[in-house]
Specification:
Two copies of one chain form a homodimer. By secondary structure, the first copy, chain A, is of the alpha/beta class. Chain A has helices at about 35-40, 70-80, 95-100, 125-135, 185-190, 225, 245-260, 280-300, 310-325, 335-350, 355-370, and strands at about 20-30, 45-50, 65-70, 105-110, 115, 170-180, 205, 220, 265-275.
Chain lengths: ~375, ~375
């Protein structure tokens, strides 16, 4: 089928896909020994390590990896006063890595995640699957009951409109986790021994108009298509909330993808999530979020973006205004967050000047004038 | 978890679930030898066989099954002039079986479908899985990335609003097919050798606001919740179209389920679809539908039902009016179909008097008056 990515199964490809077009972003507070297991899959790529916490601590990276490491001092130096939009003492800091990347694609992973095995016992090359997901279209406008129609051995089923079979560009690929599932504190407490052992061999598009809980543990996206919306909010040190960084990004991203007709996929690849975080610590971080999400989700379900919002940046600024106006009533935190959303976009455009819409437009005009 | 149905894996349960509350509806033109393979799973249940085509032909049913068989003469006798809403020479005739059933649940299956095996090599009890799907809630309002949260070993992930974790009643369970996938004629022609061998171990709710191509080959539903919307339309003999019977029902059902906050699930169970139908014959039946669906799907995506539509019947009559008004412009066929939709509801209410809203209301009033 046209549009299908024909790369070998989950073996290590001889020429790594998108070798010079993808960065791997890793937030961490410890030595990155976990990379040893990923070496066959990650070593060809550039890593962006965002060191959280004490910047004077040295983080060891296994030999042979190509990386840049940014600690809090670097973030402050690079962003100046705008560094206020980057969270501290929370994995939300990872979004700084999205901003300084110069590549078209980003894959981000937590440092307690390891290589999982598929049901045949073979190591899963998670990055390769994400790339397949991103390089093949999505189907947000109508549901295909045989899942991803672009996958080998699958197609659109009877009754799927032919006009929609080209699909939409894929902006986000959301992967899953075997072993420790991504549960909130209450569920962790109620089901301390629950492990995810079900390998669901599917990738599917989350339909237009439907929100989902996006987890940042195993996530890839197209920076050019959706990067400026991948802001992980204000979490951790000095903030009333934690563990909602990826959720916040996911709500914003999905609303904007729906508006711009971009696709969001979830499902494969799985990785092995090794360690459950402490549910008591998590409850402390989450409990305001547990209340707030009851209002935030209807807010995002009803958020609308005007026709004038034709870039991710414009969409994001419009969302920040709606956050200020509608969520500011819930708690002053959201006023601060709305400000930070604007700062984030300013910082993004400063670090990515060629990607700003004005610059692109200007470049386009220049070319036209030169003809 | 509360709401989880705790029945054994895919083994034959000692007491069949819903034994006296479920009918199996089978449309056919031939002897039902295929039932032999289903005997361990189907024998405890009542079958409703709808014989299509020549009513003088005798259909053999293997011994030991409890069944009623209706041929065209029976349909004409039972419905009188209203029999015009039941298709002839098309498997759409099966919906007559939904109407004459007196049970709460219906499972319908094609006679070229056999028992499939799960990846461990065990026979899949498709009916049992459908019942599990119907008896556990759906999650139409927000997407759960670990699929069915009510399944053993699964739950709602972090970021899933707690207010939505009770879910919604499940009205429809849509199962899938191994071996021959449910493709349209063009796809059959382009990929004559494609077989579905991917077993995706998941059940998921199709989100509110999203339409899907519902296939009638392997389908179960709650008659009380959604029965009157399960009309398979006018297809086959004397009609300009075929092979869109289940699609039509699926579009109507999904719009009404969304309006009434009912859930629609898809995924497990699989069955083994043995034989591809002739793509040339199929193309002849389908080709008008291939054009029309480009208009019909946006029509259903934009259809709205008022607050007054608080029963399936009222919703369905409202849809019939919208079909007449908006789709009638495409082809006079839709005017005839809109009429048939009304006739269907009249016939349904005639055969199911206690289930009509007025009768229920009257019974309620009677009780109140007697106090």
């Amino acid at each position: 089928m046209a549009g299908t990515v024909t790369v070998p199964g989950s073996s290590v490809p001889s020429t790594p896909l998108l070798k010079d077009e993808l960065d791997i972003v890793i937030p961490t507070i410890r030595n990155l020994d976990f990379l040893e297991m990923w070496r066959p899959f990650f070593q060809p790529y550039h890593l962006i390590i965002v060191q959280d916490g004490d910047p004077s601590k040295a983080i060891k990276v296994p030999e042979g990896f190509d990386y840049d490491l940014y600690n809090r001092n670097d973030i402050n130096r690079i962003l100046g006063p705008k560094a206020s939009c980057i969270s501290f003492k929370d994995s939300a800091c990872r979004c700084f890595g999205y901003m300084v990347s110069k590549k078209k694609y980003v894959f981000t992973i937590d440092d307690d995640c390891f290589v999982a095995k598929d049901p045949s016992g073979k190591d899963i090359n998670a990055l390769e699957q994400h790339i397949k997901n991103l390089l093949s279209p999505s189907t947000p406008f109508f549901f295909n009951t045989l899942y991803d129609p672009y996958r080998e051995g699958a197609d659109f089923v009877r009754g799927y409109p032919f006009s929609l079979r080209e699909g939409a560009p894929t902006a986000v690929s959301h992967g899953l986790w075997l072993n420790i599932p991504d549960y909130d504190a209450p569920t962790q407490m109620v089901k301390p021994r629950e492990r995810n052992s079900r390998y669901v061999d599917a990738v599917l598009t989350i339909p237009k108009g439907t929100l989902f809980p996006m987890c940042g543990m195993n996530l890839a996206f197209d920076r050019q298509l959706i990067g400026p919306a991948m802001y992980f909010g204000l979490m951790g040190d000095g903030q009333p909330i934690g563990r909602y960084d990826d959720m916040w990004a996911g709500w914003c991203v999905k609303v904007i993808c729906d508006h711009l007709s971009l696709g969001v996929k979830t499902g494969l690849p799985y990785l092995w999530h090794s360690k459950a975080s402490n549910p008591f610590v998590n409850l402390k971080k989450e409990y305001k979020g547990i209340f707030w999400q009851e209002d935030i989700i209807p807010f995002f379900q009803n958020a609308t973006l005007s026709k004038e919002c034709d870039t991710v940046q414009k969409c994001y600024i419009s969302l920040s205004e709606q956050v200020r106006e509608k969520l500011g009533k819930i708690d002053p935190y959201f006023l601060k967050l709305a400000d930070a959303m604007v700062t984030w976009i300013e910082a993004w455009d400063e670090l990515n000047p060629s990607a700003t819409p004005d610059a692109v437009a200007a470049a386009g005009n220049g070319k036209a004038a030169a003809k």
